[in-house]
Specification:
The structure holds two protein chains of two kinds. Chain A contains eight helices and 19 strands. By secondary structure, chain A is an alpha+beta fold. Chain B has a single domain, classed as Beta Barrel (OB fold (Dihydrolipoamide Acetyltransferase, E2P)), CATH 2.40.50.100. The chains are: A alpha+beta, B alpha+beta. Chains A and B meet through helix 2 and helix 7 of A and strand 6 of B.
Chain lengths: ~375, ~130
C-alpha cells in the first residue's frame, strides 16, 4: 500500500474529481493531483483503447498561451522544434531545454493563429514550466504569456473507434482532421471547442478542451460515455495511460526525459531543429555532437526469461556488471510481453544485444529491441 | 469482501487454512483488489522451507510488486503451478486460489494469527472504510 506522506497542501483536483469518485475509480496521488488510476481494471482499460475506445480525464496537464507579434520568436527561442514550420491548425512535439541540453519538459506546440500559440505541458511540471517560460522569454517583446491551465477540462478519447464516438457529438467532419492537426467546432452543444487529433496512447484519437466548470465537465464526460456505449467505451485511468504510452515508447518526464538527460541520450534529436536559429540548449547540443554524440542512449528492452523489469531496476551486461538502469518498465498488456525503456551505454544499444535485468537480486535475461514496441495498424 | 471464518490471517494480507499439521496459503480478497490485475507469481519450490513473517515469494500486478510473507514456518509440499499460466485466477477468487501448501514445523505459531473478524477490522482501520 502506498504511504501517503504528510504534505503541506491537499491534493489538487480536476473538475471531474467527484465524477471519478462516483464511478468508484481507484484514486492516486500523481504529481500532487488526486487522479483516477483505474476504474474497471488496468488491463481491461488498456485493451479497450487498443481495440475499441477509452476516455481519459487529462485536465491536470497545463496550457500556456503565447499571443502577440513576438510570440513565434519567443516559442522558437524556448523550444527546440521549429514552430515557424507550423501551419495554423497544426501541432508538433517539442521540448523546452536547459542551457546544458537537458529537459525542462516536453510539450506539444499548437499554432492557433498567426501570433497565437498554445503549449500543452505536463501536470507534474506546471509551476516549474511557467516560471521557466517567464524567466527565459518573458522579456522578449510583443509576446504575452498566460497560464490558462485551470480554464480547460482536457479530455482524451483514444482508440480505433474514437472518431466514431466523437462524430456523434459534433458536426465538424472529423475525417478532415489529420494526425497532429486540430480545429475548433461545436461539441456537446459547446461552441468553439478545440478538437485536436493528438494523444499519448499510440492509437488514433482526439483531445478536446472544454470549459473547466464542474457541471459542464461532468455533462460532457457523461455524454461521451453515453455516445461511446455502443462501441464499448470505458473510462480509463493513469495506470492504463502509462502502459499504453510505454508500449508506444513515448517519454514520461522524470523517466525518459529529465533535467539530467540530454536530447540525444533520450533519442529525441529528430525534434531538435539545429538549423532554425538559436534556442536555449542549442550550444550544448552542438557540443555533444562535436564530442562524438551521447555516451548512453535510451533503448527498448524485452524480457527474455521470466520476470518483470521495472522502473529503476539495474540493467547489467550478461556477466552481471551494472551498465544502466530502467527508466520505465512494466508488463505490456496488449503485447503480452514484459518491456522496458532503459538507458545503456552506446556499446550496448544495438538491437538484439543481450543484457540482464537485476530483479530482487537475480539476473534475468533481456534483449534490446526496436522501438516503438507497438505501432497501430495502418487502416 | 468476504474473509472465510475457518481461515487465519496476517497483517500482510495472507490467509492460511490449517488442517492438523498441514497448511494451505493464499492472499486475501483485499490484497488482490489492492494489487489490481495480477500478472506474475514467484513461488518457492517443493521442499523449500518457509519461515514465519519472512518473505517466501512475490505476487506482481501490472503496476506493483508485493512480497508474500509466510504466516507460519514449515516445508513446502505443493505449489500451485497453474498460476504460472493463469495468475489472474487470484483476482477472480482469492479465497479459494491457493499459492502453496506446507507442513507446519511449529503449529503453535498459528495462535498469533488473526481470526477473520479481527482481520476484517484491521482492514477497515487501515483503509478508513
Amino acid at each position: 500500500m502506498t504511504d501517503t506522506a504528510a504534505t503541506s497542501s491537499p491534493l489538487r483536483r480536476t473538475a471531474l474529481n467527484a465524477t471519478h469518485r462516483a464511478m468508484k475509480a481507484k484514486m492516486v496521488d500523481f504529481g500532487g493531483w488526486d487522479m483516477p488510476v483505474e476504474y474497471s481494471g488496468l488491463i481491461a482499460e488498456h485493451m479497450a483503447v487498443r481495440t475499441s475506445v477509452g476516455l481519459f480525464d487529462v485536465s491536470h496537464m497545463g496550457d500556456i498561451q503565447f499571443r502577440g507579434p513576438g510570440s513565434l520568436a519567443a516559442v522558437n527561442r524556448l523550444c527546440m522544434n521549429d514552430a515557424s514550420k507550423l501551419a495554423v491548425g497544426q501541432a508538433h512535439y517539442s521540448a523546452m531545454l536547459y542551457p546544458n541540453g537537458t529537459f525542462v519538459d516536453d510539450v506539444v506546440v499548437h499554432k492557433l493563429g498567426e501570433n497565437d500559440y498554445l503549449l500543452v505541458i505536463n501536470a507534474g511540471t506546471r509551476e516549474k514550466d511557467i516560471r521557466w517560460v517567464r524567466d527565459t522569454v518573458g522579456m522578449m517583446p510583443s509576446s504575452h504569456i498566460n497560464d490558462f491551465s485551470d480554464l480547460y477540462t482536457q479530455l482524451a478519447i483514444q482508440g480505433p473507434l474514437a472518431a466514431k464516438v466523437l462524430q456523434k457529438l459534433t458536426d465538424t467532419d472529423l475525417s478532415t482532421i489529420k494526425n497532429y492537426w486540430f480545429t475548433w467546432g461545436k461539441v456537446c452543444g459547446l461552441y468553439n471547442v478545440m478538437i485536436a487529433r493528438t494523444g499519448y496512447t499510440g492509437e488514433d484519437g482526439f483531445e478536446i478542451y472544454i470549459p473547466s466548470d464542474e457541471p459542464t465537465s461532468a455533462r460532457v464526460w457523461g455524454e461521451i460515455l453515453a455516445a461511446g456505449a455502443e462501441f464499448g467505451i470505458v473510462p480509463c485511468g493513469l495506470g492504463a495511460r502509462n502502459t499504453l504510452r510505454l508500449e508506444s515508447a513515448m517519454a514520461l518526464y522524470g523517466h525518459e526525459i529529465s533535467d539530467s538527460i540530454n536530447v540525444y541520450e533520450a533519442n529525441l534529436g529528430r525534434y531538435a531543429k539545429m538549423d532554425k536559429g538559436d534556442f536555449v540548449g542549442h550550444a550544448a547540443l552542438e557540443a555533444i555532437t562535436a564530442a562524438g554524440g551521447p555516451k548512453r542512449k535510451l533503448v527498448g528492452l524485452e524480457m527474455v526469461d521470466r520476470g518483470i523489469g521495472r522502473d529503476g531496476y539495474p540493467v547489467c551486461s550478461p556477466n552481471g556488471t551494472k551498465i544502466g538502469e530502467i527508466a520505465s518498465g512494466s508488463p505490456a498488456p496488449f503485447l503480452k510481453k514484459n518491456i522496458a525503456l532503459a538507458f545503456v551505454p552506446i556499446e550496448f544499444a544495438a538491437v538484439d544485444t543481450e543484457v540482464a535485468v537485476e530483479i530482487r537480486g537475480s539476473l534475468v535475461k533481456a534483449k534490446v529491441v526496436p522501438t516503438p514496441f507497438y505501432k497501430r495498424p495502418k487502416l | 469482501m468476504a474473509y472465510p471464518a475457518e481461515y487465519r490471517y496476517t497483517k500482510e494480507h495472507e490467509w492460511i487454512k490449517i488442517d492438523g499439521a498441514n497448511g494451505t496459503i493464499g492472499i486475501t480478497d483485499y490484497a488482490q483488489d489492492s494489487l489490481g490485475d495480477i500478472v506474475f507469481v514467484d513461488l518457492p519450490k517443493v521442499g523449500a522451507t518457509v519461515e514465519a513473517h519472512k518473505v517466501f515469494g512475490s505476487v506482481e500486478s501490472v503496476k506493483a510488486v508485493s512480497d508474500l510473507y509466510a504466516p507460519v514456518s514449515g516445508t513446502v509440499t505443493e505449489v500451485n503451478e497453474s498460476l504460472t499460466a493463469a495468475p489472474e485466477t487470484i483476482n477472480t477468487d482469492a479465497n479459494t486460489t491457493w499459492l502453496i501448501r506446507i507442513t507446519l514445523s511449529n503449529p503453535t505459531e498459528a495462535d498469533s494469527l488473526l481470526a477473520a473478524a479481527d482481520y476484517e477490522k484491521f482492514v477497515s482501520e487501515e483503509t478508513g472504510h
